[in-house]
Amino acid sequence: MLPSPINDQAAGLRRMLGKTQVHKYVILSAIPASQKNTLLLNLASSFIHTGSFAHILDTRIDEGGISARTQQCQKLDLWDLAFKDQPLHRGFYEYVQGGRISKLSNEPTQQMFDTQSRIQKLSSMIQDLSTDSNIWLIDTEFGLDNPFLIPEFSDSEIILLVSNTSHSIKKGYSYIKHVCHMIGRRNVALMVVNADESQSQLVHKNMSSAAKQYLSMNIKYLGAIPQDDHLARATQLGQAIIDAFPLSKASTAFRAVVNQLLGNPATNMIAPPMSNLNHLILEH
């Protein structure tokens, strides 16, 4: 991908900021894989607009992970690199300046811990990658692929994606119960997709009430991503919505979510658009 002045602006901002805190978010999804993958890319792009460097890590071993749906992501997975001692750059695909995608492994996370030397090498690789990436979005199904077992991700924040359908809400609540049983009581941030603000607040109220009553868990309201035809149009253009349609409803919603996660005022967002997503193609 050819560099652009706007990309250089964001890269320059990252250099001026120097060493920044690394934020890690485990993404649990109760929405279809195609919607989740589109959301991940747009969320990453919204982080990049703040001057961050975002790394999407696919830890799933099913076919719903973002690396399985990304035609260009043909690199070795990080677990292979830890075993074969390959150069680190072979373990990720830089789909846009400031944004990378990696696959963790094709093995269940629990099985990976049978080889302590490779776990140590994997941890070292993640630490090295974190010198460039201060935002980690960890795409997980949380069945056989438990990223919390990896020391570098054990303290990750949890973001749960649901829609306002009964099926999605029930599936999302089952994830909350699974989190409670597997790793204990953790705060969970809820993002409601394809719903307006009032619908999303109602979903949060009901899920939060149940989680507090039966699991003693706190469910934080992160925000709503409304239905917006601009999302599909931006995808067809090979761009993030914040680049193609910065004033759209969904673009505004993504900015609000990122600002809340980082604790930034809206004025900290970089106004000019970034470059195309390097012709990133997502299969549906």
Task: Give your account of this protein's structure.
The chain has one domain (5-9, 21-268): 3-Layer(aba) Sandwich (Rossmann fold), CATH 3.40.50. The protein has helices spanning 5-17, 33-48, 78-84, 109-112, 116-130, 166-183, 197-215, 229-237, 241-244, 249-262, and strands spanning 23-29, 54-58, 93-96, 99-103, 135-140, 157-162, 188-193, 219-225. α2 (33-48) crosses α10 (249-262), α3 crosses α5 (116-130) and α6 runs parallel beside α7 (197-215). It is an alpha/beta fold and 284 residues long. It has ten helices and eight strands. The two termini are 24 Å apart. The chain has an eight-stranded mixed beta sheet, with helices on both faces. The model is unreliable at 1-8, 267-275 and 279-284 (pLDDT under 50). The longest helix is centred in the last third of the chain and has 19 residues, at 197-215.
CATH architecture: 3-Layer(aba) Sandwich
CATH domain class = Alpha Beta
Number of strands: 8
Largest sheet: 8 strands, mixed
- Give the overall silhouette: globular
Summarize the amount of helix as a percent range.
Answer: 40-55%
Tally of individual domains: 1
Order of helices and strands: HEHEHEEHHEEHEHEHHH
Q: What structural class is derived from the secondary structure elements?
A: alpha/beta
Which regions contain 5 or more consecutive residues with pLDDT less than 50? 1-8, 267-275, 279-284
* SS element count, helices: 10
Could you give me the name of the CATH homologous superfamily? P-loop containing nucleotide triphosphate hydrolases
Terminal residue distance: 24 Å
Cα radius of gyration in angstroms? 18 Å
Taking all residues together, what is the mean pLDDT?
85
Q: Approximately how much beta-strand content do the residues carry?
A: 15-25%
Q: What name does the CATH topology carry? A: Rossmann fold
* Main β-sheet, spatial strand arrangement: 3-4-2-5-1-6-7-8
